[in-house]
């Protein structure tokens, strides 16, 4: 029986069940629920332009959604920091665009994101809220609410709420692709089956990831900072992995697109600044293969440079293993589902790094579960 010393670890292990619950909200009999399609039908504008406003981990899920909605649906998507978007209400140039607005928030009460939602409504823009609290303010005020079923998340670092957001955004992309006719019935059914099979796959890998992450944290605990690298949709996971490490363990980390490493950040790479490289691949998708080949070349260069590299790679990938100092293996998945699986070893790595540094992983200093406006003093 698996035991958990902290809420964060327990919530990492709850992710397969949370993902199943979230899928059940939107899928029935291995198909998209028609009543949900009817609810979403009036949200996206005919011009196909979407703006995503979010903060923290939710913004990283928004970065993944940008790729999903553009690649699978052909929509034009921008991702804004909610704290920036919400302050542009008086900017006349900002009011010239009228996209649909998607807000993402675990609590549904994040002040910057709520302000962004209200700014969008002030501009009469269509709004959709994806939150983990169906009765939250955002869910109530948006034109359409699309809740996730992660369940109560007690640890401050977001884990199961993040992966459930990714699942909901994947489902949103499938609904939009079906509505727009950009995906045929056979391809849609394939994506649904793969999503439904993901929780069991994650469940089977959790213990191995846990052991690997614990060993890597012990090996790398003296590092001063980390650079996390990912291409395409995996860039969002590089950003999220870096954020998790910072907030959970107080070790500095930054996430970059893999191809940007040599445009400045490579000056930092040394024995005390390792790389964490997302190097998974979907062999069925040409774009994924191209990104993988470019990542292989970068790893060759980094090996020649003497860099220390932790790679997240497909199981049995011997090419990556030969080029990295250490590998965490993920079972193969389609390109757009890989982020849900590959972020979990990074969550576990941040958890064990926190333990190695003596941090209260459930309650990191200076952080709260939801960033809300303080009540004025009486």
Give your account of this protein's structure.
By secondary structure, this protein is α/β, with parallel strands linked by helices. The chain folds into 2 domains: 7-183, 3-Layer(aba) Sandwich (Rossmann fold), CATH 3.40.50; 204-356, Glucose-6-phosphate isomerase like protein, domain 1 (Rossmann fold, 3-Layer(aba) Sandwich). 48% of the residues lie in helices and 15% in strands. The protein contains 13 helices and 12 strands. Strands 4-3-5-6-7 form a 5-stranded parallel β-sheet, with helices on both faces. A 5-stranded parallel β-sheet has the order 9-8-10-11-12, sandwiched between helices. Strands 1-2 form a two-stranded antiparallel ribbon. Strand 10, helix 11 and strand 11 (309-314) form a beta-alpha-beta unit. Helix 2 packs parallel to helix 8 (160-180) and helix 8 packs antiparallel against helix 13. It is globular and about 55 Å long. The mean pLDDT is 93.
How much is the average pLDDT?
93
Largest sheet: 5 strands, parallel
Q: What's the order of the H and E elements? A: HHEEHEHEHEHEHEHHEHEEHEHEH
Label the CATH architecture of the largest domain.
3-Layer(aba) Sandwich
- Report how far apart the termini are: 50 Å
User: Order of strands side by side in the largest beta sheet?
Assistant: 4-3-5-6-7
Number of strands: 12
Number of helices: 13
Percentage beta strand: 5-15%
Structurally, how many domains make up the residues? 2
- Under CATH, the homologous superfamily of the largest domain reads Glucose-6-phosphate isomerase like protein, domain 1
Give the helix proportion (percent range): 40-55%
Inertia-based shape: globular
The helix/strand class is alpha/beta
């Amino acid at each position: 029986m698996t035991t958990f010393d902290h809420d964060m670890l327990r919530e990492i292990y709850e992710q397969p069940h949370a993902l199943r619950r979230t899928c059940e909200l939107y899928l029935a009999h291995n198909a998209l629920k028609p009543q949900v399609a009817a609810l979403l039908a009036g949200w996206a504008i005919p011009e196909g332009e979407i703006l995503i406003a979010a903060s923290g981990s939710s913004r990283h899920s928004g970065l993944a959604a940008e790729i999903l909605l553009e690649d699978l649906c052909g929509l034009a998507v921008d991702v804004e920091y909610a704290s920036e978007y919400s302050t542009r209400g008086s900017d006349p140039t900002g009011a010239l665009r009228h996209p649909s607005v998607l807000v993402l928030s675990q609590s549904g009460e994040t002040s910057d994101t709520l302000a962004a939602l209200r700014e969008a409504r002030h501009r009469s823009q269509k709004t959709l809220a994806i939150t983990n609290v169906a009765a939250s303010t955002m869910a109530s005020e948006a034109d359409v609410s699309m809740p996730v079923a992660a369940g109560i998340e007690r640890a401050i670092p977001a884990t199961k709420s993040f992966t459930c957001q990714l699942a909901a955004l994947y489902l949103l992309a499938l609904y939009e692709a079906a509505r727009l006719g950009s995906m045929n019935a056979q391809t849609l059914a394939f994506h649904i089956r793969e999503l439904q099979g993901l929780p069991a796959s994650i469940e089977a890998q959790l213990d191995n990831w846990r052991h690997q992450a614990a060993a890597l944290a012990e090996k790398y605990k003296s590092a001063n900072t980390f650079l996390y690298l990912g291409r395409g949709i995996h860039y969002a996971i590089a950003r999220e992995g870096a954020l998790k490490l910072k907030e959970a363990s107080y070790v500095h980390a930054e996430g970059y697109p893999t191809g940007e490493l040599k445009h400045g950040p490579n000056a930092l790479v040394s024995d005390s600044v390792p790389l964490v490289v997302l190097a998974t691949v979907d062999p069925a998708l040409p774009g994924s293969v191209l990104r993988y080949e470019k990542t292989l070349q970068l790893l060759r260069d980094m090996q020649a440079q003497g860099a220390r590299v932790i790679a997240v790679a497909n199981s049995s990938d011997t090419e990556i293993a030969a080029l990295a100092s250490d590998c965490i293996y993920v079972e193969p998945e389609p390109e757009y589902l890989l982020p849900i699986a590959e972020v979990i070893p990074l969550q576990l790595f941040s958890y064990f790094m926190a333990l190695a540094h003596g941090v209260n992983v459930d309650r990191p200093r200076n952080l709260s579960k939801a960033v809300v406006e303080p009540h004025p003093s009486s």
